[in-house]
Amino acid sequence: MEKDLGSLVDLIPQTIKNLFNPHKTYLVGGAVRDFLLQKDFFDFDFIVPKEDFNLLSTKLSNLKYIVLNREIFPLYRVFFDRFTFDFTYYVDLETDIQKRDFTINAIYLNLGNLEIISHPKSFYDLKDGILRVCSINSIRDDPVRFMRAFRFLSQFHLEIEENTKNILKDSKDLYFNVKKERARFELLKFLKGDIDDIKNALIQVFADFDFSFLCRIHFSELLPDLRRNLNKDSTYLDILKAYFLGQEYPQFRFGLTEKELEYIEYIDEKIIPNFESLFEAFYRKKDKVEFLLLNIVANFEEEILPKYIEILRLWKKTKVRFSEVERFASENNLSIDRAYKEVLRGELFKIYEDICHS
């Protein structure tokens, strides 16, 4: 497992190396972990002495960067080439190790002499696929790690250490103290995982978690409309997962935007699998059919789902001619809006009947 890490250092651009004294700087966290696991990565985390950290702002003047957590524990995030490079400071390594989230992320590589320092359990846990907190206060110190734990369990197919499992259970309500922006970032990364991996992660901690909806997610994964983006970083499928997971534990919806929560709330609206109920729902949301699609997938009986998805697909493509609407309005003394609705109703009813009786 302790493979040659020199080639990892070679991946760091010289422009970034010029920012620090290599003999006092350590690479730690995801880059080291993923390199050892032979996985792709795009983020580097460095820790430097505080006196060097205080000089970084002047050295970064010609680079693109942002400052995060300015008031609490400042971090410089530098964007260079296709990677991000994070810089924080340390006082002593033993203290820093105890403040890390999980042992698999507590492997430190000195960039000068390539010396490796780690939590005593780091390499054992990385080799055996174990998720273990670095200290009993790991989650309490930064509750966003609650969600991160499930992401790691899912992403890396890990098994949770017993004490860590109990800490997660006891700390779940602390997660609501996390800033929503951070919570959302971590939640979406978790939701983008394979649903079977998500299940295996959750039942390790919450053994009674109800996954009776699993087939609905598998069905939804086949629907291109649900794989589309709702926001630039979330899909309709993500929202459906959050809907089901959040029914038992609202932590798995915490951090979603108002727009995303609006879709979740609509899933609970009562729609009956008959023409009138479906048509009225479709007419209200004809410009946002994904609302209706999510509701159908979440609530209709599984055996009728394919028919109703096909009905909705054909309804979306249906257009009515304005000349026909005008004629209908004139013949029946109706407003254009009312006439449009009635003409559309007739066209959609024919599709509904054809599909339901095929």
Automatic annotation (TrEMBL):
Q: Which InterPro entries match?
A: NT_sf, PolA_pol_head_dom, tRNA_CCA-adding_enzyme
The record's listing under Pfam families reads: PolyA_pol
Sorted alphabetically, the keyword list is: ATP-binding, Magnesium, Metal-binding, Nucleotide-binding, Nucleotidyltransferase, RNA-binding, Transferase, tRNA processing
Pinpoint the Poly A polymerase head domain residues. Answer: 91-132
Task: Quote one Gene Ontology molecular function term.
Answer: nucleotidyltransferase activity
Q: Name one process (GO BP) from the record.
A: tRNA processing
Q: Which family does it belong to?
A: Belongs to the tRNA nucleotidyltransferase/poly(A) polymerase family.
Specify the protein name: Poly A polymerase head domain-containing protein
